[in-house]
Please model this.
Amino acid sequence: MSGAAAVHIGILGGGGISETHARAASSIEGARVVAVGGANPLKVQALAERYGAAAYADIEALLRHRPMEVLLIGTPSFLHADQGIAAARAGLHVLVEKPLDINGQKADALISACASASVKLGVFFQDRFAPDMVRLKSAIDGGALGRPLLASARVKWWREPAYYAESRWRGVAAFDGGGAVMNQGIHTLDLLLWLWGHVKRVSARRTTALHKIEVEDTLVATLEFANGALATYEATTTAFPGYPRRIELSGTMGTITVVQDRIASADFRNPTEVLRGGVLSENAAASSPIVSDVRGHQAVIEDFLGAIRTGSEPRCNGPEGRRSVALVEALYHSASTGQPVELPQR
Model:
C-alpha cells in the first residue's frame, strides 16, 4: 500500500478472531484500526486500547465512526449477513470472516445489499493466499494435472470439550449453523471449489460422535464435480490430538498431495513438470482455534484493500464465498434426508 492514501478500518467483534483481524490489519502499511465494536464491552475495550482505537458497545454508533472506510466482521456466524448489510447501508466496504453467513438466503441478501450500495464484499478464506495454494491453482488451471479424476480431502482435527462448553454460540445450531463442516471444514470445501470447480451432486452422513453439542462433530461425504471428477470428504473435531489437513488431487497427468497449506508431493507423467513445496508448516489449527500466524489474514486484507483501490474484485468476493455456503447446506440436507442432493450451477 506504499504511496496509497491511508485506510481506516473498523473491527466488529471482540473475540480471538477479531484480535487476529486487528493484528493483521495493523501490520499493513497505510492501514489503521480506528474503531472496535461488539457485544462484550470488556473484550471490546481491551482490543480497542491495544490498537489505539475507539470502543463502541452499540453497532450503530460504530458504523457512524468517521473516518472509516472498511469494516472487518468477526462476530458469531449467524450475525454476519445482518451486520454486513447494516455496514453496507452505512457506506462501508465489508470483509467478513467465514462463512459468509450460515443461511444461503441471508448470504444472498448481503451480496445484494453490497451491490446496491456500491461497496466491496469479501470473505476471509485465507488458504487461497498461501503461496503453495496459489502455485497449485496456477498448475491446475494450466493443465499440469490433465483431466481431473479423483480427490480426497480430510480435516481430522481436535477441539477440547471446553471449546464448545465455554462458548454461547459454538455448537448451537441456530448460531453456528453446523459443526465440524460449517465452522472448520468449510475452508477445505472452499479450496476444492476454487481448485476444481463446481460440485454438482453430494451424498453425506453425519454424527455427533463425542462432543455434547447440537450439531455434527463428524461428517463424511462423496462429491461429484461438474468436470466428472469424484471426491471423498471427511471433517471432524474428534480426532485427538488433531492432524494436518490433507488433500490429494489426481488427474490423467499426475497426482498432487497437499498437507495443511503446503504441497507435499507432486508426481507427474511429464517429468519436466516441477511443483514442489517447502518445509511443511506446523498446523496449529488442527488442535487449537487460536491463530498464531496472521500472514494469511493479512494477505486477505491487502487483497481486499487493493480491490477497493483499483475497482477490481477481491480474490474471494461475495459470490465466491456464497459457493461454500451452498455446498455445506447441500451436505447437511443430504445427511438429514439420507438422499443425494443436486446443486444448481451458480
